[in-house]
Amino acid sequence: MLKILTIRQLLIAFATFSSHKSTFHKAKQGSSAAQCLLGDIFLYGRGEPQNYEKALIWYKKAAAQGNAYGQNSLGWMYDQGLGVSQNLIEAIKWYELAASQDYANAQYNLGHIYAYGESKKQDYIEAFKWYKKAAEQGHVDAQYNLAHLYSNGQGTEQNHVEAAKWYLKAAEQGDVSGQGLLGTLYEEGLGVNQDFNEAVKWYLRASEQGDPTAQYNLSHMYAKGLGVTQSYVRAHMWASRAVEQGDLSAEPMRDFCALKMR
Question: What angle, rounded to 10 degrees, do the helices at 232-244 and 212-224 form?
Fold first, then answer.
């Protein structure tokens, strides 16, 4: 059956075609920004069929001109094995070139390779170094991972004060895991003064974003009346939400509260 496009759809299609045509022209003329844009178009299939090999070609052209975004994107292609065989050595090479230009995403990607890469690449000291550089530029995922390294003493001495500091920075940017863990630090008094009100505040923020662990922890606070008015009804509600999302460890709390509500 023939599909009839609306005038709006035709206008959007024409605008996309015109925009891509202009981008192709600029890229062929040597614009590294246009080359990166073409790389993105082919990587994500935006207005063109997804094609990792073509994305790789354009990122290479931009990277060769010293474009930090292109270098980081090329590193990502090698890191993930997209359009090319996976090669962590090449990934690190291009990430480092972008990171040397203070490109935060590349610094984070380097940290991730060293923290979670193949065993021969795992190096928590290097991970700490690169996460810290990215975190200091406001990279939220780097802030969370830096806090995690401080909390566990990986690549640096264990320091709960610094962990709390960086979890807070991530949490303030809306990072749900950072919010939940910050709640735990306040509940237990690790790196911060114990403060049940603050614990509830951060558990609630994470819970409202759907974090089941935070929801379970929040149900515990309501059941015990820590930082909030004691309420088995609210404790049951949050435990139930946690269970609904697959946290079966919250089942005993849910059932306990259900009994208390009778």
Answer: 160
Q: Output the pTM of the full model.
A: 0.87
Question: Distance (Å, rounded) from C-alpha 14 to C-alpha 33?
Answer: 22
Mean per-residue pLDDT for 45-54?
93
Nearest alpha-carbon partner for 247 in 214, 206, 203, 213:
213
pLDDT of 176 above 70: yes
Q: Which residue has the higher pLDDT, 43 or 23?
A: 43
8 Å CB contact between 198 and 206: no
Count CB neighbours of 256 within 10 A: 16
Q: Which residues contact 149 (CB under 8 A, 6 or more apart)?
A: 115, 124, 127, 128, 131, 155, 156
Task: Average the pLDDT over 53-78 and give the result.
Answer: 97
In contact, 74 and 56? CB cutoff 8 Å? yes
Domains for the chain: give ranges and CATH numbers.
Answer: 27-101 (1.25.40.10)
Amino acid at 168: L
Say what the alpha-carbon torsion angle 218, 223, 224, 227 is, to the nearest 10 degrees.
40
Burial of 137 (0-12, 13-18, 19+ CB in 10 A): middle
Alpha-carbon distance values, 78 to 88, 224, 236 (Å): 7, 51, 48
Q: How many other C-beta atoms lie within 10 A of the C-beta of residue 66?
A: 12
Q: For residue range 228-258, list pLDDT tens digits in order.
A: 999 999 999 999 999 999 999 999 999 999 9
pLDDT surpasses 50 at 12? no
- The pLDDT value recorded for residue 19 is 62
Torsion sign across C-alpha atoms 214, 218, 219, 220: positive
